[in-house]
Design a protein that fits this description.
The chain has helices spanning 2-16, 19-33, 35-56, 62-81, 83-111, 117-120. The protein is mostly helical. The protein folds into 2 domains: 1-32 and 85-133, no CATH class; 35-81. The chain contains 6 helices and no strands. The longest helix has 29 residues, at 83-111. Helix 2 runs antiparallel to helix 5.
């Protein structure tokens, strides 16, 4: 068991040094430190809470509900287009694809079975990975 855990630790350290992980770390830091993004996300959350509270009322004010929904939609579009969020999402997707490839390779080494390469387009070289199966 100790040998397996040491190999897992080595793998973890190697993965941490991968460019995709470094990109994700940088994107996460930029995401956390972007005050404009954080402000907009806070407003979005407050508006969502306000909408939930308005829906809970026995006598709903549909004009207020529509106004809040419009603001939520506007905020969502604005937040989604912010470059720092776009980069964060793209980096996260890339890390997810990479980790799926790593996990798939480990599973293959255990089971000896791979999904159909033709269907997945997998090269078994994670540096070319567009996302595993």
């Amino acid at each position: 068991m100790d040998a397996i855990m040491e190999l897992a630790a080595q793998l973890g350290r190697a993965i941490k040094e991968d460019a995709r992980i470094k990109r994700m770390e940088a994107a996460t830091e930029a995401y956390k430190n972007d005050s404009h993004l954080q402000y907009k996300m806070t407003e979005y959350n407050v508006q969502t809470i306000a909408l939930t509270e308005e829906y809970k009322k026995d006598e709903k004010d549909m004009e207020v509900i529509h106004a809040i929904e419009a603001r939520i939609n506007s905020l969502y579009a604005e937040i989604s287009a912010l470059p720092v969020l776009v980069e964060y999402n793209e980096a996260q997707e890339e890390v997810n694809r990479f980790m799926n490839c790593v996990n798939e390779e480990i599973t293959y080494q255990i089971t000896g079975e791979r999904p159909s390469d033709e269907a997945s387009g997998c090269t078994h070289d994670c540096s070319t990975c567009r996302g595993c199966h």
